[in-house]
Automatic annotation (TrEMBL):
GO terms for cellular component: mitochondrial inner membrane. This is Protoporphyrinogen oxidase. Its EC number is 1.3.3.4. It is an enzyme of class 1 (oxidoreductase). Residues 12-155 form the Amine oxidase domain. The keyword Magnesium does not apply. One of its GO terms (biological process) is protoporphyrinogen IX biosynthetic process. Binds 1 FAD per subunit. Keywords: FAD, Flavoprotein, Heme biosynthesis, Oxidoreductase, Porphyrin biosynthesis. InterPro entries: Amino_oxidase, FAD/NAD-bd_sf, Protoporphyrinogen_oxidase, Zeta_carotene_desat/Oxidored. SUPFAM superfamilies: FAD/NAD(P)-binding domain (SSF51905).
């Protein structure tokens, strides 16, 4: 018998799962249940009235290994190849990364020399965190959250509240999820694929 499958959550994981379920010949219908007013989860864009677009979620994919190959295959299946903008490792966008902390933009260190010295907003050289990395035990969860991973591996300073929250700028948090004004649950929406 043909199956109807409900997918909880319309974020990138739920949408990808729905995509593959739709390819399954035993599935007649896929229903995506999303509690917010839009699909995409962490993937979202802010379009300003002057035409500027700010990507407030993940902006890139790293096409490495089996997961990367699978992602690129899905991009091709969806006909989105023309929307991919390749960025090489030596491109300025790959070299310049920033954190917005306490109202200031901080350039993250790049290269070996950058991790040897203390740079704001950090209170110690990043090399220290990298060296202690080999002593940190693997997490107990098979699918660990970014918040847990960063806390366990790099310390609470790196994932601390000053790096996580910037409500007035509607920015996405580093490790804890997007801040949304209004809060509360929204009616569940259904999207049949």
């Amino acid at each position: 018998p043909m199956k109807t499958v409900a997918v909880l959550g319309g974020g990138i994981g739920g949408l990808a799962a729905s995509f593959y379920l739709c390819k399954n010949p035993q599935v007649a219908k896929v229903i995506v249940l999303e509690s917010s007013s839009r699909f995409g989860g962490w993937l979202w864009s802010l379009r300003r009235s002057d035409g500027a677009v700010f990507e407030l979620g993940p902006r890139g994919i790293r096409p490495a290994g089996a997961v990367g190959t699978n992602t690129l295959n899905m991009v091709e299946d969806l006909g989105l190849e023309g929307d991919i903008l390749p960025v090489s490792y030596n491109h300025v966008a790959s070299k310049n990364r920033y954190l917005y902390v306490n109202g200031q933009l901080h350039k993250l260190p790049s290269g070996i020399s950058g991790i040897l010295k203390t740079v704001p907003p950090f209170s110690r050289p990043l090399l220290f965190s990298l060296l202690t990395e080999i002593l940190v035990k693997k997490g107990r969860e098979e699918d660990e959250s970014i918040h847990s991973f960063v806390s366990r591996r790099l310390g609470k300073e790196v994932r601390g509240p000053e790096l996580l929250f910037s409500r007035q700028h509607q920015s996405e948090t580093l490790c804890g999820g997007r801040n949304e004004q209004g809060g509360g649950l929204h009616p569940v929406q259904q999207q049949q694929l």
